[in-house]
Amino acid sequence: MTISADELLTTTRSVRKRLDLTRPVPMELVRECLELALQAPTGGNAQLWHWIVVTDPGKRKAIGEYYARSWNAYYGSGSSARSLFKDDPARAAAQERVSDSAAYLAEHLGEVPVHVIGCMTVPAGLPEGNQAGLWGSLLPAAWSFMLAARARGLGTAWTTLHLAYESEVAELLELPANVRQGVLLPTAYYTGETFRPARRQPLDEVLHVDRW
Predict the structure, then answer these.
(1) CB-based contact 74:98 (threshold 8 Å)
(2) Are 112 and 186 a contacting pair, CB within 8 Å?
């Protein structure tokens, strides 16, 4: 697949309903994407990240069950995407679509052929207060993985809902106590043709130069 940098950046979407749940993803393709992800910036060049690639059907099923439980609680709380921007018909319609696709992923996560979980080693435990420096050393690499996957015909979705059961998932995957999870990236070939840029707020509504 040949794709320009601008197209890659504007058409890498969170893929949920269009993940191909039946087509295996070669591990070498996942490795290619992770090799590129490791070129992302990391604070102090410490490279404290770790990547758990889950392909075992039983473990994926178990993660999917925790994820569905977390989604049900999140949706029931009234704070999901569907509840946002109800007074704006144009944005409300988009939120409905996002919520529907998120519900689909919650129902089928365990069937997605590859789960990539980005983690950080935290020898002294999670810091109190501002944790931007810690997670800022992981999340750019996770996004790079998503971009690399998109360029290779794979779909991904950025999600953290499983973290409501982080300790249970850590036990399932035998993670050391000083390794904390930051993001779950379900990964599969996507169905359909391609993706278009998403409708976003106009830049001038969110841009501030020198002051608010």
Answers:
(1) no
(2) yes
Q: Copy the structure tokens of residue 174.
A: 């035998």
* Phi, psi (deg, nearest 5) at residue 95: -65, -35
Cα distance between residue 155 and residue 16, in whole Å: 8
Render pLDDT for 13-54 as a digit per residue (tens, 0 to 9): 999 999 999 999 999 999 999 999 999 999 899 899 999 999
pLDDT digits (tens, 9 = 90+) for 77-89: 766 555 555 666 6
Q: Can you give the CATH number for the domain in which 198 is found? A: 3.40.109.10
Q: How many domains does the chain have?
A: 1
202: left (phi over 0), alpha (psi -120 to 50) or beta: beta
The band of 136, judged by pLDDT with boundaries at 50, 70 and 90, is very high
Distance between CA atoms of 68 and 102, rounded to whole angstroms?
10
In a domain, 55, yes or no: yes
The reported pTM is 0.89
Angle between helices 27-37 and 139-151 (to 10 degrees): 130
